[in-house]
């Protein structure tokens, strides 16, 4: 009589039971259920867990999300840190949206940027149907410069400051941009836009402004920054 090999070799696989001279027929007709190796029942391979559906943000390589105020059809994505930082701004925007004759964004910038980067950002926002208070367009000849700025600040949902090398050079010397910035820093309306410079460089000039989370063209193009701002201020 053929001897079972289970005491020596075990029957932990189907092939081991099939090769046993005593159990090969049991293995073929109904499977081996003997006591040494236990019954073999091949387990199905576990299905791989689905990968989270993340969208890479340009320049960061980190995961991004839609903001709470994003519409279902929106194609604008934020880092989680950006979405959290902009939530208080969004709350202010919604509160001020009911004020009469109000602009959506007040654009603060260095005088040297008025015909270059500031105008480019202004035009990108206008292309998104955002109403922007911009000194080059909104201060009539012969009017009080500071008084018009004061009105612009009072009648805007939020303010952005375009932080460039020119602004960093100008802030320590004072001037109009410094006054605009001082007024904005006293509110929950301010979003810094870091362009062609860094937060570290800003921190050396204005630690208070650098403490405000904003958007940076180090991470996104100016066009994408404009898209994020447009979505942030639209309430309808």
Task: Describe the protein's architecture and organization.
The structure is a single chain. By secondary structure, the protein is an alpha/beta fold. The protein folds into 2 domains: 1-43, no CATH class; 55-233, Toll/interleukin-1 receptor homology (TIR) domain (Rossmann fold, 3-Layer(aba) Sandwich), CATH 3.40.50. It is 41% helix and 11% strand. The protein has 12 helices and 7 strands. The strands form 2 sheets. A 5-stranded parallel beta sheet has the order 4-3-5-6-7, sandwiched between helices. A two-stranded antiparallel ribbon has the order 1-2. α7 (145-154) packs parallel to α9 (176-185). The protein is elongated. The protein starts with 5 loop residues before the first helix and ends with a helix. The model is unreliable at 10-18 and 25-61 (pLDDT under 50).
Features:
236 residues; 2 domains; 7 strands; 41% helix
Please state the second-level CATH architecture of the largest domain: 3-Layer(aba) Sandwich
| CATH fold label of the largest domain | Rossmann fold
Strand order within the widest sheet? 4-3-5-6-7
Give, in order, the helices and strands.
HHHEEHEHEHHEHHEHHEH
Report mean pLDDT, rounded to a whole number: 79
Structural class label: alpha/beta
Largest sheet: 5 strands, parallel
Number of helices: 12
Q: Give the C-level CATH assignment of the largest domain.
A: Alpha Beta
CATH homologous superfamily caption of the largest domain: Toll/interleukin-1 receptor homology (TIR) domain
- Measure the end-to-end span: 87 Å
Number of domains: 2
Number of strands: 7
What is the percentage of strand-forming residues?
Answer: 5-15%
The percent of residues in helical segments reads 40-55%
Tell me the radius of gyration. 32 Å
Give the uncertain stretches in residue-range form.
10-18, 25-61
């Amino acid at each position: 009589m053929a001897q079972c090999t289970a005491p020596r070799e075990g029957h932990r696989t189907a092939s081991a039971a099939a090769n046993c001279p005593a159990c090969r027929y049991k293995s073929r007709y109904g499977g081996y259920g003997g006591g040494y190796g236990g019954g073999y029942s091949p387990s199905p391979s576990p299905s791989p867990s689905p990968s989270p559906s993340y969208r890479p943000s340009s320049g960061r390589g980190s995961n991004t999300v839609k903001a709470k105020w994003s519409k279902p059809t929106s194609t604008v994505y934020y880092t989680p840190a950006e979405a959290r930082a902009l939530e208080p701004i969004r709350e202010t925007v919604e509160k001020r949206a009911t004020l009469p004759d109000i602009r959506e964004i007040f654009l603060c910038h260095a005088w040297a940027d008025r015909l270059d980067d500031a105008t480019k950002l202004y035009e990108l926002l206008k292309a998104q149907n955002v109403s922007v208070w911009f000194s080059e367009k909104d201060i009539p000849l012969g009017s009080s410069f500071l008084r018009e700025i004061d009105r612009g600040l009072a009648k805007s949902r939020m303010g952005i400051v375009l932080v460039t090398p020119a602004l960093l050079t100008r802030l320590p010397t004072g001037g109009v941009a410094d006054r605009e910035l001082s007024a904005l820093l006293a509110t929950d309306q301010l979003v810094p836009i870091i362009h062609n410079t860094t937060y570290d460089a800003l921190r050396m000039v204005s630690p208070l402004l650098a403490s405000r989370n904003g958007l940076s063209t180090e991470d996104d193009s100016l066009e994408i920054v404009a898209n994020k701002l447009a979505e942030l201020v639209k309430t309808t």
